[in-house]
């Protein structure tokens, strides 16, 4: 029997000894399981720390990144014989058993650092069996790892209270410094916490931790880590804790980043270095608060700001609301990502499309209602000032943000072309067919985000090239060095993933020149508006229907700034426009970002841009009767060739008010300069009470024979004579059309459109027809509109165009 017992005992002992060499699951000891994700700004400032799988904050450090003072303090306080025992300290266990028996309760656990590492990975029950398993696993861990590796795991896994794990996270939380920079006193203070993290909370029980710190310092002296003098100096050193903060920085930005970060990637990351500039972010947040206080009486409760560094294509600032932590104003809604109607801020893309199709900034556009009879008005949106301005140059129409000319341009080129341009500029939110938006797309009837709008304008600042917006600079995978996040960059890029050309650099240069022209926008916004800055800045405002959204977006060479103000409840503001609501905040941000005397802020002009003096009313070369002249920019080769024919000197018979003839006595002849525009402007001029010649000359005056005196009964107003249209090889043929618009007298009926002498369509009010390009033969085409006036057939002057 005794032999059997000895045999069984020997077998069990051998089995136990063999079990010590069975390795533990190394996956459970991977550093990422206790490493929290740190999100920092471009300067390394911590913005937010996301808890690890262990539901705490922690950063994995090597022993060389930890102060020797802290390593010594931990060993002295927790496991003085760490480097000599095999994972279980028998003397410590016996001592703990004796202390617990004397106290009739558990006052000491006798756990080694190795056993505490096991406890952090395997949460065994607090019982004799659980303690036994913990010891067994500790013995096995000592066969898997060196003492230095076990010590590294302990220092990175031990809890320090307040959801903090590891010495580096604790050093940063309580002292605001990394673990490598701790003094002897600070090291002893931190080493006092793991004994009982819940009870040794420095914020709530400072005196308790301070008392244990003195115990740790005595242990460090007894074990030979410090001298008596060092202990006394450490005891006198005051402990200054960093105030506890429950919030985090740049909340909308960091939340957006975390939402975009794939779940499978997040767990492996230790640090994400972002492109955000937190000092600038903080300034923008303060400006938002101050600006909204001024707008409170206008029922404005929120705002959002985006700032992009153009050259780097990087997001520098994202303010999503007035206060992320204020639930009364829906502060956690991210205004930079909210879908809202952008108002007139999309108009520059309409005008860029027109410039790409051969128009110039000097071309005259019709800002007039289309009247077909005295009571029949074809619907057009109103301008902001509720007025029509007649013939306006493209520069003025865009700078003053007139609605009617923009809509007419979309009708001319088609909303499909505009939508494709907006998609190239990164507006992925405009995901409905072009027919869903119609011509109102240019007025912002679709919904976009502030981020999309900002990046689209940044594309203009970069010469017309759209590039996905970056929000991270580098990442650190747990245990590795910082590296460029090539794959993550595409996953986290804001907007569409591929780069694309929106407009040519030459077209962008003209748009930039218009959007930065304070004189051109003065008629609508005043000579001293918030958009007038002491350095070159291209800007555009926008206001959605019923004053629900208010925007200002613009760019310099260095930065693009986009501002939205409004209410997340969709409640309308009280008479706040883009120039009075968002523009003052836009101005303040731009002034903060730039020095007024910086010569490098001037926009460069590409080689394909020229300048020429023009008549400000006709857009043609100045004539001797023009009231003045201004300088305009053109794509090389598109400059006007003809002298102004709008300003004409006519001889008037003062007796009758009619045109003087060769027989009129000289004493009854007076000369007067008249402005004579195309026939589509006659009704507008009449309503404005503008001086008109005795017999209204129709069409381009220089093409009308001097002998013609009768009012032309009809004329083609769009397209212009000599215009060239090019078939797009990519766009679907059914969306490629030419808009033909005519002016027809009231007494003309049976109106027909003729091409090269062949009748192709019957026209009805408002006498507009979309001519499919795909149905036309390439080459020169002659357009004529004809109809019946009484029994007589009348026709318009021919308009010659070319299709390529």
3D structure, described in words:
There is one protein chain. Helix 2 runs parallel beside helix 8, helix 13 packs antiparallel against helix 23 and helix 14 crosses helix 16. A hairpin with a 5-residue loop joins strand 7 and strand 8. Strands 22, 24, 25, 27, 28 and 29 form a six-stranded mixed beta sheet that branches. By secondary structure, the chain is an alpha+beta fold. It is 31% helix and 19% strand. It has 24 helices and 29 strands.
Gap between N and C termini: 110 Å
Q: Unreliable segments (pLDDT under 50, ≥5 consecutive)? A: 371-379, 696-711
Q: Briefly note the structural class of the backbone.
A: alpha+beta
Q: Based on Cα principal axes, name the global outline.
A: elongated
Report the total helices. 24
Give average pLDDT, whole number. 84
The percent range for strand residues is 15-25%
Main beta sheet, described? 6 strands, mixed
**Rg, Å, rounded:** 39 Å
**Proportion of residues in helical segments:** 25-40%
Number of strands: 29
Compact overview of the structure:
With 804 residues, the protein is α+β, with helices and mostly antiparallel strands.
Write the layout of secondary structure elements.
Layout: H1 2-19, E1 37-40, E2 46-50, H2 68-78, H3 90-103, H4 113-121, H5 128-144, H6 147-157, H7 167-175, H8 184-191, H9 206-222, H10 228-236, H11 251-260, H12 263-266, E3 269-274, H13 278-294, E4 302-309, E5 314-319, H14 347-356, E6 364-367, E7 370-371, E8 377-378, E9 390-393, H15 394-399, H16 403-413, H17 415-424, H18 434-437, H19 450-461, E10 465-466, E11 472-477, E12 482-483, H20 486-492, E13 500-501, H21 505-515, H22 518-525, E14 538-543, E15 549-555, E16 559-566, H23 583-593, E17 609-614, E18 630-635, E19 647-653, E20 669-675, H24 682-688, E21 714-718, E22 724-725, E23 737-744, E24 748-755, E25 758-763, E26 768-772, E27 779-789, E28 792-795, E29 799-803
Helix pairs in contact: 2-8, 2-9, 4-5, 4-6, 8-9, 9-10, 13-23, 14-16, 14-21
């Amino acid at each position: 029997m005794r032999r059997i017992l000895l045999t069984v005992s020997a077998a069990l002992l051998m089995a136990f000894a063999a079990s010590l060499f069975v390795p533990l699951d190394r996956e459970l000891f991977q550093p990422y399981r206790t490493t929290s994700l740190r999100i920092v700004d471009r300067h390394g400032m911590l913005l937010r720390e996301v808890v690890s799988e262990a539901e705490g904050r922690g950063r994995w450090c090597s022993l060389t990144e930890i102060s020797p003072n802290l390593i010594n303090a931990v060993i002295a306080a927790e496991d003085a014989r760490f480097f000599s025992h095999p994972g279980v300290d028998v003397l410590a266990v016996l001592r703990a058993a004796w202390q617990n028996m004397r106290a009739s309760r558990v006052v000491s656990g006798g756990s080694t650092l190795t056993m505490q590492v096991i406890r952090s990975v395997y949460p065994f029950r607090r019982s004799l069996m659980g303690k036994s398993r913990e010891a067994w696993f500790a013995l096995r861990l000592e066969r898997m790892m060196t003492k230095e590796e076990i010590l590294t795991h302990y220092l990175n896994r031990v809890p320090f209270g307040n959801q903090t794990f590891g010495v580096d996270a604790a050093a940063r939380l309580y002292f605001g410094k990394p673990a490598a920079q701790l003094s002897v006193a600070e090291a002893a203070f931190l080493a006092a916490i793991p004994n009982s993290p819940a009870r040794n909370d420095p914020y709530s029980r400072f005196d308790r931790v301070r008392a244990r710190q003195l115990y740790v310092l005595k242990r460090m002296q007894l074990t030979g880590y410090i001298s008596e003098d060092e202990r006394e100096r450490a005891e006198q050193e005051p402990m200054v804790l960093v105030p506890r903060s429950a919030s985090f920085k740049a909340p909308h930005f960091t939340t957006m980043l975390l939402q975009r970060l794939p779940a499978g990637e997040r767990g492996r990351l230790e640090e994400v270095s972002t492109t955000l500039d937190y000092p600038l972010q903080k300034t923008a947040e303060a400006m938002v608060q101050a600006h909204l206080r001024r707008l409170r009486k206008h029922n404005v409760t929120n705002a959002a700001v985006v700032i992009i560094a153009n050259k780097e294509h990087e997001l520098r600032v994202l303010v999503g609301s007035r206060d992320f932590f204020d639930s009364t104003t829906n502060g956690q809604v991210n205004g930079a990502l909210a879908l809202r109607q952008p108002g007139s801020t999309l108009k520059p893309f309409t005008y860029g499309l027109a410039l790409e199709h051969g128009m110039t900034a000097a071309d005259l556009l019709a800002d007039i209602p289309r009247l077909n009879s005295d009571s029949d008005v074809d619907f057009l949106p109103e301008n902001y000032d509720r007025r029509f301005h007649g013939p306006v140059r493209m520069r003025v129409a865009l700078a003053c943000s007139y609605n009617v000319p923009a809509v007419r341009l979309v009708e001319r080129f088609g909303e499909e072309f505009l939508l494709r341009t907006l998609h190239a500029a990164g507006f992925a939110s405009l995901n409905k067919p072009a027919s869903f938006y119609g011509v109102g797309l240019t007025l912002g009837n679709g919904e976009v985000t502030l981020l999309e709008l900002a990046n689209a304008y940044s594309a203009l600042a970069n010469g017309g090239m759209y590039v996905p917006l970056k929000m991270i600079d580098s990442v650190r995978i747990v245990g590795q060095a910082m590296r460029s996040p090539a794959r993550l960059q595409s996953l986290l890029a804001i907007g569409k993933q591929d780069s694309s050309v929106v407009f040519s650099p030459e077209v962008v240069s003209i748009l930039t020149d218009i959007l930065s022209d304070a004189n051109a926008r003065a008629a609508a916004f005043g000579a001293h508006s918030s958009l007038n800055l002491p350095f070159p800045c291209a800007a555009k405002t926008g206001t959605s229907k019923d004053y629900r959204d208010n925007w200002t977006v613009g760019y310099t060479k260095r930065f693009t700034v986009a501002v939205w103000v409004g209410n997340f409840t969709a409640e309308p503001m009280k008479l706040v426009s883009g120039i009075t609501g968002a523009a003052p905040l836009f101005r303040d941000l731009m002034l903060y970002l730039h020095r007024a005397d910086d010569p490098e802020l001037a926009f460069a002009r590409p080689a394909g841009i020229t300048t020429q003096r023009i008549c400000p009313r006709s857009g043609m070369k100045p004539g001797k009767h023009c009231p003045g002249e201004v300088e305009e920019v053109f794509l090389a080769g598109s400059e006007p060739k003809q002298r102004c024919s709008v300003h004409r000197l006519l001889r008037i018979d003062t007796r009758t008010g009619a045109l003087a003839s060769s027989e009129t006595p000289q004493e009854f002849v007076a000369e007067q300069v008249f402005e004579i525009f195309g026939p589509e402007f006659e009704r507008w001029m009449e309503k404005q009470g503008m001086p008109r010649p005795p017999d209204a000359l129709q069409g381009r005056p220089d093409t009308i024979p001097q002998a013609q005196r009768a009012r032309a009964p009809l004329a083609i107003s769009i397209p212009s004579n000599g215009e060239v249209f090019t078939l797009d090889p990519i766009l679907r043929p059914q969306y490629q059309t030419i808009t033909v618009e005519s002016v027809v007298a009231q007494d003309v009926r049976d109106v027909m459109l003729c091409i090269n002498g062949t009748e192709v369509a019957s026209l009805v009010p408002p006498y507009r027809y979309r001519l499919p390009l795909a149905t036309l033969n390439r080459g020169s085409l002659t357009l004529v509109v004809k109809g019946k006036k009484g029994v007589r057939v009348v026709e318009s002057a021919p308009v010659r165009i070319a299709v390529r």
